[in-house]
Amino acid sequence: MRPPPDFIHEFIPGTSGRTLLLLHGTGGNEHDLIPLGRELDSNAALLSPRGQILENGMPRFFRRLAEGVFDVEDLKQRTNELADFVINATERYEIDMKNIIAVGYSNGANIAASILLLRPEILRAAILFRAMVPLVPKNLPDLSSVRVWIGAGDQDPIIPTSETQRLAQLLRCAGADVTVRFANTDHGLTNAEVRTARHWLDGLKP
Ligand code: MLT
To answer: Could you say which of 54, 88, 126, 172 is the most buried, measured as most Cβ atoms within 10 Å of its Cβ?
Structure first.
């Protein structure tokens, strides 16, 4: 078996048993979401990889054919590679495998949703800012112990509200407990919705 590819990443230890897996948007890097992670949970460990695809020099987590049109075979492969990286990191950094929560923005939220659908053993919960349906798996996983918070913008030019509802529906069909919040905004994050996501995270058992 091939060893899983390593990802350039940042790891910041925490003081609780929780780890936030931070997944940046197109053109981001491993540093981008550290402040967001700290704002969401000041005690959690933060594991923040950089996507390995370059699109015109901009890092991403998987290839796309056009905006919102994904290369599904590449997405499946990259999802597995990222999931294997996380498993490796649990050993390297003594992370509790049962207490990993993804926090993804845009392209990072899409690969987080893909991890939920293809590698459901990795995440206990996920906060997905500006996510789409990444793929529809042949067999739905059992996500009955997983909680998901989706933050969408009701004027997002990239993600229609119907796409957000489609993602929520797919995850609910798999048994996940899904909360959807629409902010009065576009693709960019607002402070108010970050505060709302923090309250939701506070409500999960540490
Ligand atoms: C994606 O490619 O994942 C979505 O189109 C969002 C983006 O990164 O622009």
So the answer is: 126
On whether the CB atoms of residues 108 and 32 are closer than 8 A, the answer is no
Return the pLDDT at 194.
98
Residue of 23, 58, 78, 106 best suited for mutating to test ligand 1, as the one with most atoms within 8 Å of CB = 106
Atom of ligand 1 nearest to the CA of 107: 3
Instruction: Give the residue among 143, 140, 180 at the shortest CA–CA distance from 164.
Output: 180
> Would you state the pLDDT for residue 5?
72
At 118-142, the pLDDT tens digits run 999 999 999 999 999 999 999 999 9
Ligand 1 proximity of 114 Cβ (cutoff 6 Å): no
Cβ of residue 25 lying under 6 Å from some atom of ligand 1? yes
Secondary structure letter of residue 51 according to DSSP: P
Which ligand 1 atom sits closest to the C-alpha of 67?
5
Residue 68 near ligand 1, beta carbon < 6 Å: yes
Name which of 9, 19, 32 is nearest 107 in CA terms: 32
Model confidence pLDDT, tens digit, residues 5-29:
799 999 999 999 999 999 999 999 9
What H or E segment, with its residue span, contains residue 101?
strand 100-105
